[in-house]
Amino acid sequence: MLVDEQETLYQAMGGADTINKLVEAFYPKVYADPDLSPLFSDGVESIMYKQRLFLTQFTGGPSLYSEQYGPPQMRMRHLPFEITPRRAIAWLRCMREAMDDIGFTGEARELLYERLTQVAGIMVNAE
């Protein structure tokens, strides 16, 4: 539970500023990871832009992703890619390291990481 029950995760984590920092710290790690980099053939700017929109909406901020791309339906959108348990763990590791790099700590970090762990598990579609 967040300190203020009226506050969204988006607000508790610092809104767009924190999301931007997190995305900026996250993608260099993804592209450097040998398990993850093959999944990201599109331009990094496009992927980072979509991730910013998604994380904003995912954390209770404005519905930016849905406004531009429709309902997130992340599992469906990721079905063309082979997402193994190993890749899900690597993705979470990169996110955790990015959180460390930007100094994102506390209850909001724990809640976001817990929710992202659930999402990573749902995305697995291959052994």
TrEMBL record:
Cytoplasm as UniProt keyword: no
Gene Ontology molecular function: heme binding; metal ion binding; oxygen binding; oxygen carrier activity
Metal-binding found in the keyword field: yes
SUPFAM superfamilies tied to this protein: Globin-like (SSF46458)
InterPro entries: GlbO/GLB3-like (IPR044203), Globin-like_sf (IPR009050), Globin/Proto (IPR012292), Globin_bac-like_CS (IPR019795), Hemoglobin_trunc (IPR001486)
Pfam families xrefs: Bac_globin (PF01152)
Entry cofactors: heme
Family of the protein in this entry: Belongs to the truncated hemoglobin family. Group II subfamily.
PANTHER family the record matches: TWO-ON-TWO HEMOGLOBIN-3 (PTHR47366:SF1)
Protein name per its UniProtKB record: Globin
Lineage: Bacteria, Bacillati, Bacillota, Bacilli, Bacillales
